[in-house]
Amino acid sequence: MMIVHGGPMKIPVYFARRFVAGESALEAIEAVKELNKDGIVATLDLLGENVSSHQQADDVVEEYYDLFKKITDSGVKSGVSLKLTQLGLDLDVTSCVERMRKILINARKHNLFVRIDMEGSFYTQTTVDVFIKLANEFENVGLVLQAYLHRSMDDAKNMAQKKFSIRVCKGAYKESSSIAFQSMDDIRTQYKNMVKILLEGGSKIGIATHDDELINWTKAYVVQNRIPSAQFEFQMLYGLRRKKALELAKEGFRVRSYVPYGTHWFPYFYRRLRERKENVFFVLKSLIADK
Ligand code: FDA
User: Mind listing the pLDDT tens digit for each residue in 61-71?
Assistant: First the structure.
């Protein structure tokens, strides 16, 4: 039985299997092959955040090199996602940027796109700054903006001006009301306004949500405003709303699944359980069903 590393408890990855594609890159690639068969592309994410040594951060770079090679060798349709704290942002910004540069150079050789996930608000400004620096040098990098943060509308305007590639999500961390909207209505309103600004500016965007209201709104908006299909895609997390993803793909929309894997899965798994009580039921149900 595999044991989680670095989590607050020792728990087998078995518990997280609905949301995590496995502990190894090869298991995750197999999951992507299945998605690709259904016309869904992917972004592979090596789970991990807040590394505590330069050695750990350097190891992550090597693991991404290895992943790029495996993506190319297997021929799967996938980009990658990562977190800056996985590359040592807590240790020092300069070496984190250098690691990102190495990753982007290597990804470019493989013709792969790298998306920088957005973490808790403590990291927002630095992540935006690092991204802008890199996006001025590389075309194969994108960022995530979180609709729950008050500041995100301004960030979206800045990103749209440069036509940078942005994934828009609601935001998965617990943030205070002084900096973040707390009601679903306010978050959805800002989400829609950000999408409008980004599309108008010519950014390529990912509509990262499982929320039917936002999905249906986007579908209507892109028709009314004649948005080219190459300018947007729907994105969902591995293991969530599989039928909906399939339905969208069958309707002809580009759909991407965020496929996380690795041994450091606990914080990601915990965020999924916290944001939706049904996710706790899924886990319990699958455990009972497998007995
Ligand atoms: P939410 O949980 O708010 O639910 C809203 C409604 O959607 C529900 O009431 C229901 O109607 C419907 N719904 C949701 N899930 C459903 C289900 N499983 N089955 C049926 N109906 C369902 N966050 C972050 O902070 N930084 C990041 O970098 C990223 N990256 C990211 C990538 C991708 C591809 C996705 C999809 C999400 C992220 N997130 C993220 C997470 C994101 O911020 C957010 O926490 C989750 O997507 C949950 O918000 P939703 O809008 O999906 O639905």
Answer: 999 999 999 99
